[in-house]
Amino acid sequence: MSGFGVRTAYGSLERVIVHRPGPELDKVTPDTLREFHFARPVDRMKFVADYDSMLALLREHGVEALLLSDVLAGDEDSLAYMAHRPNMTYTRDLAAVFSRGAVIMGPHLKGRKGDERMMARAFARLGIPVLGAIEPPGYLEGGGVTVVGDDTVVASLCDRANEEGTRALREIVLGKEVRYFLEVPLPFGHIHIDGIFMVLDEKLCLIYEPSLAVFPCHLYEAGAAEPRHVLFPEFLDRRGFTSIPITREERRGGHLNVVVTERSRRAVGFAGAVRVGAEMARHGFELATFPADELFIGRGGAHCMTCPLLVR
Asked: Which of 63, 101, 159, 163 is buried deepest, with most CB atoms within 10 A?
């Protein structure tokens, strides 16, 4: 059985790579908040306790969660590097795995640049082929990339991605991994598309529509000379999606930052996402939750902290 392969964003999550944070969280100080994009310095013990609750839920749901530090055991350079990088725990941003292999992302902030190399080293140990990488001057992070259906890669132009970055990804995957590539421009202030849009099932999603109805998107098709233009909500409508809208307050609280662990049945998310969980339940989902009051100080959740390797 192959140990990797991701064709959809909504299948059952079988294998994922994560990084359990440790002393590197102490690198977040009042003077480094902008570089590391934390809301404030964290209480490390509380942050890790929240994280461990999340990790326990993933494993309880049958997900094989590989710890990055275990994969890189014996690589003293990598382990020493990670001991200074509090954002390593947001593994999704460092790579995107598709059916044939992985694309190494290109983070934008100094507090993140270089972290992706640790993921590339882990992939080499795991035998996961690297299809390409986002290189300067391009930048793009995994939270800005998702898949709609099994034929469309979506990448957002946002505060952490530029045209060179999305173009590089498009050249790697269009016509090889997928038939379509949708480039989604977002208004200023949005870090990634996974803060406002989350695929739950083949035709079901969570969405904060106001931010996705501002600019027309560029829809590229393999073999076509020019992209077509469509607003993101219209694209979803044409695909027959049912959208669960979230409020501005829920967006700010990270309530749509969920991970589907079992197709059409189970997901993991924040304990505070009570209304979102109830809405998901109406569509057959059980949202298993974990406390995240301290963890969300890092402005990420379960989705940000998981890089899927194998989805069935």
From this structure: 63
